[in-house]
Each structure stands twice: as C-alpha cells, then as structure tokens.
Amino acid sequence: MPLFDRMKSRWGVGPGGAVAILLAFALAGLTTVRLKGPVIGFLLPATAPGWLQWAIFLIVMLPVYQLLLLGYGTLLGQFDFFWSKLKAVGRLLSGRTARASG
C-alpha cells in the first residue's frame, strides 16, 4: 500500500484532507524556522552560548509550533485532526493517560 494511502487511512481523511494536513505541517515547520532567529535574538544576547540558545528554542518555540500547527490546520479545514493531536501531546507532556469515556 503506498504511503499516501496509508496516511489517508490512518488519519481517516480523504485525499484533500491528507494534502491539507501535510501542508499544515509544512507551513508550521517553515514558519517556526523563520521565527527562530528573531525570537532568539529578542530573548538572548548574540554572545549567548549555543546550548542556551537551543534550550530557549525548545522552551519557547515548541509551544509556538503547536499553536501554528493548530492555526494552519484550522485555516485548511482540519481543526479536529490537529486539536486531537494537540490534546494527545498535552496528555503526554503532563504524564496523564487518556480516560475511556463511558
């Protein structure tokens, strides 16, 4: 089974939905890369060590990436998909497990 068909099946979307999801990932990633320099430059002096720049990048830009992903996903009509993924990341980071509803 081709990769694109596996993604559509796993995500439960049609071809347009899969393209929208992939496009949202691409746009969020590109935007994050473009914002990295100005954000790090605003928060740290140019002489800051590389490890500190990476630490600040992870602390600040990873949440920004998640919000960008949700925003682009919403604009491309895939809010429900990205909202469920964002909730799963939140549960993972908080150490909570998903509860079965019933």
Kindly report the average pLDDT value: 88
Give the ordered list of helices and strands: HHHH
| Tally of alpha and pi helices | 4
Q: Oligomeric state of the chains?
A: single chain
Spans of at least 5 consecutive residues whose pLDDT stays below 50 are none
Could you write a compact summary of the structure shown?
The protein is an all-alpha fold.
Provide structural commentary.
It is a single chain. The chain is mostly helical and 102 residues long. Helices cover 78% and strands 0% of the residues. The protein contains four helices and no strands. Helix 2 packs antiparallel against helix 3 (50-75) and helix 3 packs antiparallel against helix 4 (79-94). It is elongated, with a radius of gyration of 17 Å.
Ordered list of secondary-structure elements with their pairings:
Elements: H1 3-11, H2 15-43, H3 50-75, H4 79-94
Helix pairs in contact: 2-3, 3-4
